[in-house]
Structures are given as C-alpha cells and as structure tokens.
Amino acid sequence: VTDRPNPRIAPFLISQFLSCALHPQERLADSSVLPFSAFLTDNFGRRHSYLRISLTEKCNLRCQYCMPEEGVKLTPRGQLLSTSELLTLARLFVREGVDKIRLTGGEPLIRPDVLDIITELRKLEGLKTIAVTTNGINLARLSPKLKDAGLDLINVSLDSLVPAKFEFIVRRKGFHKVMEGIDKAIELGYNPVKINCVVMRGLNEDELLDFVALTEEKPVEVRFIEYMPFDGNKWNFKKMVSYQEMLDRIRQRWPNLETLQAAQADTAKMFKVPGFSGQVGFITSMSDHFCGSCNRLRITADGNLKVCLFGNSEVSLRDVLRSGASEDELLQIIGAAVGRKKKQHAGMFSISQMKNRPMVLIGG
C-alpha cells in the first residue's frame, strides 16, 4: 500500500458498484413520505440520516474491549482523510439528508483541529445535531470551546466508578479527569450527558447499581452496552452480560423502574427511576438487535464507508475522492454500498468469528 492514490480506483469501483445499484425511484420505499435521498435509502426502506465520522485512529487510553493491549498499527498519515476531504464528504451526506453527525475516534478530542471541524460543520444547512463520543480525558479543558463551536451532544465512555478498576480497564490513569469533564459538561448545560458503559462479566457488572445511583443527582443518561466482539478484544460469550440480566438486577433494587418511550431509530431501551434526575438505557446489540430501524453509516479515519458496525465490507471514499471522481460518481458508489446493506447483522457467535477492525479503528 502506498500513500499515493491509485488513479484507476474510481473507474474500477464505479464499474463494480453501479451494476449493483438500483434505480433511484425504485429505492424510495414510500412516495407518501417527504423525499429522502435514494442514495441513502437501502433495499429495506431504512433511511440513513445519521453519520458517524472517525477523526483519528489514535487514542490516549487502551480500553480492553476496544483495542488490543499491544495497540494497533496506525494508518500512515497520508492515507487518512484530510480535513478538507472530511468536510467535503460531510457536506455531501448532509445535502442528501443526513441531519446528525457524530465525531468519534480513536479519541476525537486529541485531534488538533477538532474545534475548527465542528465550527465548519455547524455552517451546514440541514445539519441539526453535532455530537461527539469521547473518553473524557480532555473534556474539562475543551468543553467550553466545544460549546462555543456549536457542539450539541456529548457521550462519555466510562466503565467503572472505582479509580483502580478504571485504570485496569483502560490501562491508563485519568479517572478523576473524566469525572471532572462530566461535571463541567453538565455545568455548561449539556442535558443529558450520556455515559457509555460496556458491561463485562467478572470486571464491572458489580457496579450496575452504582451507575444507576449516579442518575439520582446528576442529569446524565447511563447507557449500559452489551460486550461486543471486535478484533483483538478477546470476546467470548461468558463475558457478556445480557440486557435482561442487567435489567433484572436493577429492578431488584428499584422495582418501580419506569419504561420510557424511545425514538424510532434510538438504539437504547430507556428506563428511569422515579424522582431521579437522569435515566438509564441499554444497548442490546447482541441479545436483541435493532437492525430493523438502523439509520447509521460510518466513515473511518482512513476514509472507508462502513454500512454496518459488525460488517467487514468497506468502500474507500478516500480513493474515489483522490481519483478526481465527480460528486455524482461518488454518490453512485455510496448508494450502491448502502443498497448492499444486509437486513441484520450475523449474530454474536458469527460476528465473533469474522475478521473486522478493532473498535478503535472503526469509530467507537
């Protein structure tokens, strides 16, 4: 692999993918609904209005479920999307109907121009929501500037409320910085601040009630995530704590736990303890998938489009951009990739055997 783009790649991809693309009029599932881009609508009628963009493969933590202990081989800088390329793709997707963009990593807040990127995204007409998922290490320092730049939503990854266990899971120090960042975001008016907690048996499932208790005084939304298989994270079924098991444990402590109505494309099943400031949710990717309402697409830091988090099929939008392809050609390739999106992922046991990127190289 070289840093130089291959000038033949766009014609090759176009010839390969156009044969798979359906006629745009055939791709629109329901003509009674307001028009939505045929290129972002798959063959099951799912409309992809939510784009996750990885800003970097680098991270200042080494979380066990996300990255192998030895780290990962980083893509050479010249093969990563430039800021200009990233914004070009963002504009194109927003023009076609994307109204929410989430910036991920690696750790997005270590990218030097993250504030400039958010400022430019804020100018895009039709983009309603800009979100970021962060490990929180730099959040306290950057959150006022993030707010000024136009950031709407913050998700913080936090898997333990015990400092020593936090360090064991992420293989680095920084617990108090993360908590300071959460408090600063709350102070600035982010409501709710979402806390993503990957639950792993034998590691942190004993803290479920402590995380729920966190929502009593703080306006946070704790989202318990079932442990998912990715390259290098040594996943096995015995480590996974299912949504139902977690919910049963929480209901033993708070029997009056209320079920909340979730939005149609929301990935979380939402609950609230009456009288508490915040709420809790469950991301049930393994035990009860939500593929039928999936509206998400991902662009990796090296410019590959992934239509499914658990799929290993990718299309290089970077190579197409660098080959000088027109916007129409780029849209045809995007539409063909979206058109090949499967009805649902392969299931936890099949996924665990598939070759896929480590989470840190997808965009956590």
TrEMBL record:
Keyword Transferase set for record: no
Record-listed E.C. numbers: 4.1.99.22, 4.6.1.17
Entries under PROSITE patterns matching the protein: MOAA_NIFB_PQQE, RADICAL_SAM
Superkingdom in the source lineage: Eukaryota
Cofactor: [4Fe-4S] cluster
Gene3D superfamilies listed in its UniProt record: Aldolase class I
Keywords, in A-Z order: 4Fe-4S, GTP-binding, Iron, Iron-sulfur, Lyase, Metal-binding, Molybdenum cofactor biosynthesis, Nucleotide-binding, S-adenosyl-L-methionine
Occurrences of domain Radical SAM core (ranges): 43-256
A UniProt-annotated Pfam family: Mob_synth_C
Gene Ontology terms for molecular function: 4 iron, 4 sulfur cluster binding; cyclic pyranopterin monophosphate synthase activity; GTP 3',8'-cyclase activity; GTP binding; metal ion binding
Biological process according to GO: Mo-molybdopterin cofactor biosynthetic process
Pathway: Cofactor biosynthesis; molybdopterin biosynthesis
Assembly information from the UniProt record: Isoform MOCS1A and isoform MOCS1B probably form a heterooligomer.
UniProt record similarity statement: In the N-terminal section; belongs to the radical SAM superfamily. MoaA family. In the C-terminal section; belongs to the MoaC family.
Name of this protein: Molybdenum cofactor biosynthesis protein 1
Organism field: Salarias fasciatus
Source lineage: Eukaryota, Metazoa, Chordata, Craniata, Vertebrata
